Amino acid sequence: MTANKAKAVAKTLLEIGAxxxxxxxxxxxxxxxxxxxYCDNRLIMSQPQARDLIEDSLVDLIQSHHxxxxxxxGTATAGIPHAAFIADRLNLPMIYVRSSKKGHGKxxxxxxxxxxxxxxVMVEDLISTGGSVIQAAHKVSQAGGQILGVVAIFTYGLxxxxxxxxxxxxxxxxxxxxxxxxxxxxxxHDFKSQERTLKAWYQDPEAWSDRxxxxx
Length: 216
Prior knowledge:
The protein is of the alpha/beta class. The chain has helices at residues 3-15, 48-65, 79-90, 131-142, 159-166, 178-188, 195-203, 205-215, and strands spanning 19-21, 27-28, 34-35, 37-39, 71-75, 94-97, 110-111, 119-127, 146-155, 172-177.
């Protein structure tokens, strides 16, 4: 993605509230980490104009990096709607991958069908550690799919996520990332005075979180 496209997507995410920044009153992730950012890309589904921008951009990303894709795979649950929109635009089969097998029926981990050897692109909405989409990709690979790579809307760009993808052969491409979003927010929203603390979180999330906990 170009810098202009990354900022356009960041702008959209901020405008529809899919991303919220609150360095003074941090959010708490399920891990317990204090953070100045909260991302809920599920809101994109409800905003047709934003949805068109995001899905068209994801299609462009796939066609640029994986033009030979044969199957689009979504991760449960947030990646599913985006995979569906993309598969429809590309007129391709779609599957989705459960976090765990169903407890009844055929006990499927993968819903939908594909042929062994088909080339698959994984779709995720958000990359933090990368664990869920990498696990999903492994399931598709074990079932015979050829994983071309992963595309996602947004990544925090954290070292733990980058390290996870470095350890597997799944190229990652995203529409935008935390640094691009902060740059846009500082330039176009009321975050100029908080630029330093927003960038400090990205540089060392654990230390930032510890300071936030002590302040409270």
